[in-house]
Amino acid sequence: MTAPVSLVPAATIFILTYAILGIQGIPKIHIDRPSGALLGAVAMVAFGVLTLQQAYQAIDLDTLLFLLGMMILIAYLELSGFFEVLERWIIGQARSTRALLGLVVVSSGVLSALFMNDTICLLYAPVILRVTKRLNLNPVPYLLGLATASNIGSAATIIGNPQNALIGIRSGMPFLKFTERLLPISAAGLLIDFAIIAYVYRREIHGAPLKIPPPRQAVVLQRWLLRVSLTAGGVMFVLLCMNYHAPAVAMSMASLVILAASRKPRRALQQVDWTLLFLFAGLFVVMRGVEVAGLTAVIFERTQFLLTDPTRAGSAGICAAVAILSNLVSNVPAVMLYVPLIEAQAAREHLWLLLAAASTLAGNLTVIGSVANLIVLEAGKDEARISFLEYFKIGAPVTLLTLIVSVLFLA
Question: Global pTM?
Fold first, then answer.
């Protein structure tokens, strides 16, 4: 059977876009990630993989509005002085680089299980950059710890990430039962994550005491702005935990802060990372092109038989297939492809859990494996350029080992 006409150009465009996103700093090539995503999106239309209307429809406005609302809220927290207070608290708790990495990994994982991992990365990335700059440390291992731990921790609960929420709704599995089965995997995964990062960066991550610089000037808090921002953030987290529509919640809280704040919104809007939103808009189009061209269907059709294989080999095959699909079209579309097939199976509880674990943990494989990774990498692009290989040497072993743990525990 011959491949669809659009399969070859779609695969070529995807690989080239993937290369631009992952390999930064190539001599004489000054295309950054947002520009690479735009070029890939334009190419999908120019080469006939997608129509212009399909490209418009591919852009997930829910995701973009959620990120925009969060960025506005974070900008007001920054203006209030909140992050400077948090920076000083973290420095006070971490007595060594190893302790600092442990604090980042554990706190990122735990918070991502309670709140969506993308939210934690948006909040935490600027804090880590401030702390490492103040302590004169290389921010790369800590940013990698944030990205990978947030993915691992989010696997533990239905509210940890969007694909788990989808699985929770379609499976009807109780919140506590879901968490009971996946929490041990997340806990083991965080230990694996810490051990691998500490080993790979062992020259920088050690137990020697940190040289903590004396405080600069006193923190100037804008108390009204801080109270308004924290209250809005607290209400937002509660509403997200109650499964209210995430984009509507984020934009509503951002709007309330703009109305209640005592300063003009221009400064806050100037701190929004508009290029990150631009990056995701382009990526949505590229990923839809890969899906429409039939590249994902080829993998999907050849792995359906694994759903009826109750052995560990079958479970390992499901994890591998979901991991590959999750890195081709992102984890939520990958989950949506498998949901109808799992619903048709008689014994499906372990399949739901495998799907949740594999689609989430696979996000650590590459830089574009999850939204959380791109948020962290883009946040640190000016101070810590993390290449595809720099990420992969952590992400690949973390993904492989955590997927093995999943298969052993759930099969």
Answer: 0.75
